[in-house]
């Protein structure tokens, strides 16, 4: 049997390990990316490692998430991120250049390469035949050292696409349908590989939308072939020399298969408060008043997305009850839309054009009103994700969002367009040539020039806290018992104010679980050390490692849950919090917040893979599993990734022994 694309990339980057699903493999990483509200921790860690330069082919620091400077903190962060990048040989995408995933796909992605990024939507670059994986910031720092990165070998799912999307149906419908079928947990430990005749009908930004939201299925990544469509896109970006055909073998083997008929899809909508709560728009019986519509984000911020939304809105005006905003994914796209008249159409319809940034997607601006209803083309609708704990967020395509803005309630393009107008949406395609201007990309300096750079740290930028090794006998209280599906937004709130604090862990930790349990931070601080209990899918959503760093700083020693999301589990390990899973999920119901728990011979039990927990308050005990690899156990027992990494670099002779 032949190889699929995922296996080809992993085997060509393999340093050691067995390519058996669930086993550890160690791979070299070609490229990394970071963004501003997570990256300070990444580069603080890289500074502490002690290397003089990043040892990847390409590393990029994107200043794209928080461009709303409410005080000195974020501009100070951006100055630090620029100067530290110059010091260590990293590209900088300046504020206003665009959102990291679109910028990377347009200017850096290459077929057959391996990318790791400090954002959960890094798989976007799978649109170009690149294996792109979202990880925590400490993992990015590790990848930048050039050491092989640990990866759990995924299963590979063949998704055979047939047919062609009809007018008014977007690639967003493809991934919403995938979420409806697979659910937010169904992609765990898997890569979705899209193949078939239907793939040829999807342009690169459409593929990007699907790969981007594959993260919401819990997938390791998603990938498309590098075919003539990708070749055309890369030539349009003046990067044709970087193109190479990259396809699965005709007889490629897969672990699972499924088929999706593009021509059978209709406009869909994800209901609050999970992206897999998907139904057809036409099936909705209630049509409440919508207060906000947001067009754009990394998921649906392409030229075609906005051109189609503009055609839907042409001749109409935004409903008087609706605030409609647009977040275009890059300066390149903005200029093209402006030249072709689509931007004017949007402005004429009453759409407000925002910064070229992530903005509303991560609650930096455009927070919905009390109990408000917001319709968005972004990728997540968790409770609190938009900055309001009681807002209801619905996810749709750009065509449906535009129609909703006009109607003032849920609608699809076919509800506001005549058939002949609707048909014109299928005539919209990506440009044959994009505006290529990399003036807002700061290229890496030479090593000689870099040595002269002074890294500038504002007063809000604190050192990265480093955890200790697990203590022999742990005895402490439960500081929090949480429900199912606690997200990283629940643990570390989004928003301009909170995002600006992320360089200062002592300050940010005061707001840990701020919206979920306002008393948590003070309670954890008073306890000194504690354990968190979680339900299913603990730590879902954004890759933000602050959701691990802040609890660690507050003394949380381990999380015991029914299940833990992949990236968050890695972040817990990296920052010294031991992730444990209930062996019997019913034991979750037996423990309560503030119970006294005891774990004897903790390091030895971690190494053995099974930990017995004694609840002294209830007079019971229960078993938990250390459901991680042997390599991850080493990191835990070393006291987190930074200590483990420094030990590795000394052993490899890359750093001198202390």
Summarize the structure.
This protein is an alpha/beta fold and 658 residues long. The protein is 30% helix and 19% strand.
Q: How would you describe the overall organization of this protein?
A:
The chain has 658 residues and is of the alpha/beta class. It is built from 23 helices and 27 strands. The strands form six sheets. A seven-stranded mixed barrel has the order 21-22-23-24-27-26-25, surrounded by four helices. 59% of the residues are buried.
Helix and strand layout, with pairings?
Blueprint: H1 5-13, E1 14-17, E2 24-27, E3 31-35, H2 36-49, E4 58-62, H3 73-88, E5 91-93, H4 100-107, E6 114-117, E7 131-134, H5 137-144, E8 149-152, E9 155-162, H6 171-182, E10 190-195, H7 204-213, E11 221-223, H8 228-236, E12 256-261, E13 268-270, E14 278-280, E15 292-296, H9 303-313, E16 323-327, H10 331-339, H11 342-348, E17 352-353, E18 373-376, E19 392-395, H12 398-407, H13 419-423, E20 441-442, H14 447-450, E21 474-481, H15 488-491, H16 496-499, H17 505-508, H18 520-527, E22 530-534, H19 546-553, E23 556-561, H20 566-574, E24 578-582, E25 596-599, H21 602-608, E26 610-615, E27 620-625, H22 630-638, H23 641-651
Parallel strand pairs: 3-4, 3-6, 4-5, 6-7, 9-10, 9-12, 10-11, 15-16, 15-18, 16-17, 18-19, 21-22, 22-23, 23-24
Antiparallel strand pairs: 1-2, 2-8, 5-20, 13-14, 21-25, 24-27, 25-26, 26-27
